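for the writeup, i need someone to sanity check this before i put it in the appendix. the sequnce is what the collaborator sent (i think, or maybe the updated version? ugh). structure was predicted straight from it, no edits. if anything looks off just tell me and ill rerun, i have time this weekend
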Amino acid sequence: MNRLLKLILLAGGILFAFGCGYKAYLGLHGTSVRLHPDIHKSVTADRECLECHHPDNPKGPPTPHPTFTGCIKCHNDENGTKK
């Protein structure tokens, strides 16, 4: 029984990390808008982000998660500024 429980937990962990466990859920942030401050200086709302990054009509790199909220919160930090 103990071995079965470990196997189930391992399988669940792998599915979470590689399946539905997006980086945001794991506490990691996306590429920062601070890499391109000239383009993003006036952006203050998710709606503005999706005007350029929505996959249906991208003017910039399309987002893989257009239904998420909190674009600025996730993409406006010092941690994601490395290229």
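The chain has a mean pLDDT of 79. The helical segments are 2-20, 37-40, 46-53, 71-75.
thx in advance!!
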